[in-house]
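Listing S7. Sequence submitted for prediction.
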Amino acid sequence: IGSSQIDAVIAKKLHNGSITILGSGIAKSAGITKGTITDNQLSGQSIKKAVISANRTSEEDIHNATVSLSG
């Protein structure tokens, strides 16, 4: 999650411990300024758009999420 864009990646940990990327998505960031969330509603909508975009490129259901803020 950054001030200009939000990236979402859907990945799956395999039985052998490796990770495979299943999908990715990007959305324009809103409600975030200089790495700080300034509007929870706008930032939440931006995160949701990125996750929906990533989910479209994947055929997996999302069960867990990890969020990382840059800045």
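Caption to Listing S7: primary sequence and predicted structure tokens for the chain studied. The helical segments are 40-56. DSSP finds one helix and four strands in the chain.
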